[in-house]
Every structure is written in C-alpha cells, then in structure tokens.
Amino acid sequence: MKEKTKSCQSELLLRMAFGELGFWQRRRLGRHLKTCDSCARSLATTSRIARELHGKTRVPCPETLVNDVWHKTIAEPQQNSKRAESARFGRPLALALVAALLLVVVAGIYRHTGQSPSSERFSAQEIRQAQEDTHNALQILSRVMRQNRQAVERSMLPPILSPLEKSMKNTIQSLFYGG
Amino acid sequence: MHASLRKKRFQLLVHRYRDALYSYAVYFLGNTQDAQDVVQEVLVRTWKNLDAIQIGASKTWMFRTTRNLCIDCERRKTARRKYTEPLETVLPCATDSIDHPDVLFDQQELGRQIDLALKQLPPHLRSVIILREIEGLSYKEIAAQLEAPLNTVKVTLMRARQALRQNMETIMKSESTP
C-alpha cells in the first residue's frame, strides 16, 4: 500500500466505506489500516457517513398529491371529451328536436280543431309541397339521429326523441295520408 | 394508444414510482413543498407525453424529468435560498432500536449534518449520490438517466463522495468550535 499516492488511498477508503471493494483489495487495505492510524480514522468517519446515507429511508409520497394528479390528468380529459362531444352533437340534435316539436305542435293544433289540410283550403300543389317538405325534414332528422347514434345512445335524448319521432310520424301520416 | 390502456399504464407508473420520485425530490431540494410541486409536474408531464415514452424507458424518463425540474426549481429559488425544513421532520425515525439518549442525539445530529452536507453539494453531484446511495439505482440506470457513459458516472460518484466527506468535515469542525 506504500506505493499508492494519497488520492488513491483516499479513493480506496471511500470505496471500502461504501462497500464497493473486492475481497483481495479489502484484505490489502486491511493490512495497511493496521499500521496507519490516520487512514483508519478516515475510514471510520467515512463509514459512518455511508451507513447514515444507506440508512436513509424513502419518503412516502402524500396521497393528496396523487389525488391532485388524477384530477389534473385522467379526470380532466374525460370532462373535456364530454364537452367536445356535446358541442359536436348538441347543436344538430337540439335543432332536430325543435323542428320535431314544432311539427308535432302544428299537427296537434290541426287535430284539435278538427281541420285538416284539404283541397278546400289548400291547393293540390301546396299540399304536395308540404308533403315533400315533411319528407325532407323527416329524412334529415333520421340521418342526424343515425349519424349521431353513439352520442344519442350515451346521452339522455333517446327516451325523449324516440317517442317524439314516432308520434310525429303518426301525426303526419294521419294528417296528410289520412291514416 | 387506446384510452383505457393509456390510463392503466399511467396508473401503474404512478403507483410504482411515486414514492421514489418524491423521495428523490425531497432529498434533492431539502423541503417537502417544492418536492410536491415538482413531483406533481413530473406526473402531469408523464401523462401528457405517455405515448412518446418508450415502454422500457419510463423510469429513466421520469427520474430525468424530476432531476431537471429539481434543478430548475433550485435555480429559481437561489435568491432566497434557505434550508427551510429539516429533513428529520418528514423522515420516519430509523433509530428505534437505539435507546440511549446520547446515542440517539448523536445519530440525529449526524443525520442532520449529512442532510446539510448533501444540500451544499453541486446539483450534478447531489443527484448522483441520492440516486446511488438512497434510491439504490445501479450504475447502469444512473448512466441512462444522466445520458452519460458508465465510467463518467463512476468518476462523478467518487467525486460526490469525496465532496460529501469534505463538507461533513467542514460542518463538524464549524459546529465543534464555539
């Protein structure tokens, strides 16, 4: 060990204290330590530091932090996607709903008053036009509902829209085709 | 990646590494408040970049991000740098078996001095010593995290140990003289 420089010895002592020396190196250093007080003292101090460092335990992460992270990551995108979905599908569905309601109200008024669009009040061309318009409206409504079926199924709309669509179809059928 | 798979992977990563990351940040920064901010940011960034993080490299990525954010945090706070919260207050007492008050005091003193010496190390040396001696990472893992060759890690760790011992000696000397 005498041929080693001071820095080499210091490095060996550090490695020994942190448990990274091999068997033969430990034996050689051990022989040196028996005769060298300063190295023995240095090793004792370094070993205490190493033991204290190795004895340091992991600090557990607080549960509140993890909860905050859930809110900022997993929960937020779900809310965003719901918002995006409603923005995408909400408008056409609301329009379809309003159109359907209007048709039902108009048809209901005709039914209640006992008046139906007949040739006495409307010309044949006007009735044909109304029939075409109603067909188109129904087609648009059903297309919107078909395209947005996923959104409709997930939303609260089917329980409202399905009977509404049915009653609207029936009313129009009875009004214009005498069903 | 499918949404549910992505969610599961993220939950797994958080469950597996949250304590290690938090512990690393606490020892690096020396106080729990900053450590919480840093770890929260790391986890949020992990969620955002989950698709870009390779399956086998998650641990390295998360530790590297934590280290970078810790260094950023420390830079921001250099003007009002203070060792605000002693680590003993947040660490569970590991000296239950020692009954004698003097021994207990010595142990606590040594722990406090080491925390102080650790805090005085430059960030790159502190990072290596925490990863190796407290978190127990292998040289290979540290090298991957620092994106440095294995030998560089070994040399850096040796320097960190030497610097820590020097800091300890200085602290002990300054505290022993009235």
Question: Ends of chain B: how far apart?
Answer: 64 Å
Radius of gyration of chain B: 18 Å
Which parts of chain A are unreliable, with pLDDT below 50 for 5 consecutive residues or more? none
Distance between the termini of chain A: 112 Å
Beta fraction of the residues of chain A? under 5%
Overall pLDDT level of chain A? 71
CATH architectural type of the largest domain in chain B? Orthogonal Bundle
Number of helices, where a helix is a run of at least 4 consecutive DSSP H or I residues of chain A: 7
Number of domains of chain B: 2
| SSE class of chain A | mainly alpha
Describe the protein's topology.
The complex is a heterodimer of chains A (179) and B (178).
Chain A lengths: L5 H12 L5 H13 L1 H19 L7 H51 L10 H24 L1 H6 L3 H20 L2
Chain B lengths: L2 H27 L2 H17 L9 H19 L24 H20 L2 H12 L4 H8 L3 H27 L2
Helix pairs in contact in B: 1-2, 1-3, 2-3, 3-6, 4-7, 5-7, 6-7
Mind explaining what this structure looks like?
The complex is a heterodimer of chains A (179) and B (178). Chain A has helices at residues 6-17, 23-35, 37-55, 63-113, 124-147, 149-154, 158-177. Chain A has 179 residues and is mainly alpha-helical. In chain A, helix 1 runs parallel beside helix 3 (37-55). The longest helix of chain A has 51 residues, at 63-113. In chain A, 15% of the residues are buried. Chain B folds into 2 domains: 1-82, Orthogonal Bundle (Rna Polymerase Sigma Factor, Chain: A); 97-178, Arc Repressor Mutant, subunit A, CATH 1.10.10. Chain B contains 7 helices and no strands. Chain B has helices spanning 3-29, 32-48, 58-76, 101-120, 123-134, 139-146, 150-176. Chain B starts with a helix and ends with a helix. Residues 81-99 of chain B have low confidence and may be disordered.
Summarize the structure.
Chain A is mainly α. Chain A is built from seven helices and no strands. The longest helix of chain A is centred in the middle third of the chain and has 51 residues, at 63-113.
